[in-house]
Design goal:
With 377 residues, the protein is of the alpha+beta class. The chain folds into three domains: 113 residues, Butyryl-Coa Dehydrogenase, subunit A, domain 1 (Orthogonal Bundle); 109 residues, Butyryl-CoA Dehydrogenase, subunit A, domain 2 (Beta Barrel); 144 residues, Butyryl-CoA Dehydrogenase, subunit A, domain 3 (Up-down Bundle), CATH 1.20.140. The chain contains twelve helices and ten strands. The strands form three sheets. A four-stranded mixed beta sheet has the order 1-4-5-8. Bound molecules: flavin-adenine dinucleotide (FAD). Flavin-adenine dinucleotide binds next to strand 1, strand 3 and helix 12.
């Protein structure tokens, strides 16, 4: 029940993915390449401003279109998909919470793909427990002085703007504020580039803030609103990660169907054995369930309805399914699956992160459980 525009976005994303990403995905993975120039091409297809209204230079295609596009991109390269997902979630957050000046300053550039956006919440000593973060923003003249370290910032080295959370007040969530910071500004340093298991075509780095000065216009929302702003960004982002997981799952299914019909054992294609074909049947079923859960959350978001819990359910289900079925896809490929001759080993490595970032599976379960039981502790 997609609109013609949503189908168009999906088809366009699939075409761009096949033409501009698929031929390079294995090499980007092998060589850990961040394909910066690709994002200009994604912009030509209108994919960089899907969550930005037309008046700020985006397409305003909405969350359903975003889910469909991310899935198609992840089907060929999960690293590119997360870069696009995080970028889009920051665009949406600036649009939702930013001042008119911030929207005018950032959205047209981000929607055009000229500039990329990142998100910096996690620190060495706080991940799931984000409300305990320690990086500080202290008032200084007309602005703020930022100090501390942000860990595993996606797109950190290539972003023109990072939505970063700092403590401006006392302990806990209410003491946190969000800022829009250029990571290349004086006082901000790339402390470490992260080597990781998968999503090698995405950039992940730690940012050190050492007396970095920002103006008052860098504050996103009010002082003390930063934790809620970060959560608001993550609700939308989780639709993107659910879509990324669904895309990896779709790639596993494509590869497994092909291999199961082409590979022979005991005189038959291996797909003739129930031990193989039933794995594929479950993969296909979970893919549709993952996609539908993500689309449900996306439809609610587009309708302006609450969608946080649905986004958590979608991310929880899709990421578990992606990790489980990526392992099965390797199994179906036998020894070939363990080699770089086939792409399923990459899908297997890429799938795992979907259970961790933008809230681990345990945190998603906490959110879903609390929506049913309240806070019992
Ligand atoms: C490749 C990559 C990219 C990333 N990109 C970004 C980014 O762009 N921006 C950003 O801010 N962060 C980013 N992150 C960080 C990511 O979001 C965190 O790693 C994640 O939120 C988990 O935090 P943690 O690693 O500190 O684990 P912890 O919070 O220390 O958790 C460790 C384990 O304990 C469990 N746990 C913790 N609390 C509970 C609880 N209450 N109940 C049950 N179990 C619990 C967790 O589920 C997990 O299994 C990235 C991480 C990676 C690896």
């Amino acid at each position: 029940m997609l609109t013609a525009e949503q189908e168009q976005v999906r088809d366009l994303a699939a075409q761009v993915a096949q033409r501009e990403i698929a031929p390079h995905a294995a090499a980007w993975d092998r060589e850990h390449t961040f394909p910066r120039e690709l994002y200009t091409k994604l912009n030509d297809a209108g994919l960089m401003g899907m969550l930005v209204p037309e008046r700020y230079g985006g397409s305003g295609a909405g969350y359903v279109a975003y889910e469909l596009a991310i899935e198609e991109i992840a089907r060929v390269d999960a690293g590119t998909a997360v870069t696009l997902s995080v970028h889009s979630m920051i665009c949406a957050t600036i649009e939702k919470l930013g001042s008119e000046e911030q929207k005018r300053a950032w959205l047209p550039r981000l929607a055009a793909g000229d500039e990329l956006a990142g998100f910096a919440l996690t620190e060495p000593d706080s991940g799931s427990d984000a409300a305990s973060l320690r990086a500080s923003a202290v008032r200084d003249g007309g602005g703020y002085r930022l100090n501390g370290r942000k860990q595993w910032c996606s797109t950190g080295r290539f972003a023109a703007v990072v939505m970063a959370m700092f403590r401006t007040g006392g302990a806990g969530a209410k003491g946190i504020s969000a800022f829009l910071v250029d990571p290349k500004s004086p006082g901000v340093r790339v402390e470490r580039v992260t080597e990781k298991l998968g999503i090698h075509s995405s950039d992940t780095c730690d940012l050190a803030f050492e007396d970095a000065r920002v103006g008052r216009d860098a504050l996103l929302g009010g002082e003390g609103d930063g934790f809620q702003s970060a959560m608001s960004a993550l609700y939308g982002g989780r639709i993107g990660i659910a879509a990324q997981a669904a895309g990896i799952l779709a790639a596993c299914l494509d590869a497994s169907v092909k291999f199961a019909t082409e590979r022979y054992a005991f005189g038959k294609p291996i797909g003739a054995f129930e031990g193989v074909s039933f794995k594929i049947a479950r993969m296909a079923t979970d893919l549709e369930a993952a996609r539908l859960l993500a689309l449900q959350a996306a439809s609610l978001a587009d309708a302006g309805e609450p969608f946080a819990v649905e986004a958590s359910k979608a991310k929880l289900f899709a990421s578990t399914a992606a990790r489980t079925h990526a392992a099965e896809a390797v199994q179906i490929h036998g020894g070939y699956g363990y080699t770089t001759e086939f792409p399923v080993e990459r899908y297997y490595r890429d799938a795992k992160i979907t259970e961790i970032y933008e809230g681990t599976s345990e945190i998603q379960q906490l959110i879903i459980a609390r929506s049913l039981l309240g806070r019992l502790e």
